[in-house]
Structure formats: C-alpha cells, structure tokens
Task: inverse folding
C-alpha cells in the first residue's frame, strides 16, 4: 500500500483505487490506511470497495481535492476522523452505514471514550483499541499540538458528503471541544464520549 500511495503521489492521478492491485492476503492485512494518504492532494476519487479497513487516519483531511469517497461494503470500518470534514470538495460518498456506530436503522452503541491519560504517552504510537487511532499529534479542531497526556476525545455524528458518519474528534483542550458544531438531525445532538448514552429511536 505504501508503494501504491507513492506511485499515485508521484504521477498526480485523480483516482486512487489500490485494492485491486493487492493480493487477497495483502488486502486482509490492511486495517488502516498509511498516514502518507495525505500526500494524495490531486486525488478526486478514493475507492476502497470491500476493504478490511477498521479505521481511516486523520491525514485524509489533507486530501483537499477529494470529491468522492467510496469504501462501500467495508463492513469493519467504524472509526472515521473528524479531519475528513476538511475535505471541503467532498460531495459524494458510499459508506455501508448500517455497519457504523449510531446508524439510524439499528443505533449500535458507540465505544466509550476515556479522558486523557495521567501519564505521558507516545503520541506517535497509540494503542488503537484504546484510542481508535495509532497517532494523535495535532488537534482535530485547531490543528495545534496535543499534550503528551493524550487527546480529549469525543464522538460527533455529522453529514459527510452523502452519509452521516460517526466522527472521532481528537482535541487539544476542552476549549476546542466547546467549539464543535451540533450533531446531524436525527442523531445525538451534541458531542459525547459514547458508552451508555441514550440515542434517538431507530427507524
């Protein structure tokens, strides 16, 4: 995948469809995209159909030309970064929404997010089972640095292109969390930490 991203960055292609170029075994091993995905600033269409992805890295927010995001039938994909909202040209998406946290049909619960750590962390090597990401160096809201004790994390369901996605916010402070917008209509209206939180009725 790293090599494919380097090739796409070098030739400035507008569509990135990497999975057909990988073997079935290679595809099964890829549970997140490399952070270098942010180098694909010319890509307008990102196709990840049928992937084994679990999460998308915050660096997707650097894909400023992105217009279409298609990870359809990637049914393990649950963690979407708030940074995807920086892709201001993103207009079309095909996400398997019935598989994601808080979806309008089934309302599966959001994982409980914890407070920042009491001890210093290596922000470049976080445990994804605990933090939902492998790295959190900059604030999802203001892009400033995050304290070594880790990010302030909240969930926020927002419309991204044509889908409502559960977005993971890694903030540097409560002040940045306080600037977040409200949730999408029909979803939890405020940012939250997940866990035993009441959701609107399913449809």
Result:
């Amino acid at each position: 995948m790293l090599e494919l991203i380097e090739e796409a960055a070098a030739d400035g292609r507008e569509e990135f469809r990497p999975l057909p170029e990988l073997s079935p075994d290679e595809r099964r091993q890829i549970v997140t995209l490399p952070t270098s995905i942010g180098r694909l600033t010319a890509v307008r269409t990102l196709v990840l159909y049928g992937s084994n992805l679990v999460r998308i890295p915050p660096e997707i927010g650097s894909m400023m030309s992105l217009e279409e995001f298609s990870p359809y039938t990637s049914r393990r994909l649950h963690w979407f970064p708030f940074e995807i909202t920086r892709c201001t040209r993103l207009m079309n998406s095909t996400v398997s929404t019935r598989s994601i946290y808080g979806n309008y049909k089934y309302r599966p619960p959001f994982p409980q997010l914890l407070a920042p750590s009491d001890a210093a962390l290596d922000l470049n090597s976080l445990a994804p089972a605990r933090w939902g990401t492998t790295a959190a160096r900059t604030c999802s809201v203001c892009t400033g640095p995050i304290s070594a004790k880790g990010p302030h994390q909240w969930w926020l369901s927002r419309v991204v292109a044509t889908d409502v996605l559960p977005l993971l916010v890694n903030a540097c402070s409560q002040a940045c969390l306080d600037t977040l917008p409200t949730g999408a209509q029909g979803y939890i209206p405020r940012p939250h930490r997940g866990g035993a939180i009441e959701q609107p009725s399913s449809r």
Q: What stands out?
A: The mean pLDDT is 95. Strands lie at 15-16, 45-47, 68-70, 80-81, 92-93, 152-160, 163-171. The radius of gyration is 16 Å.
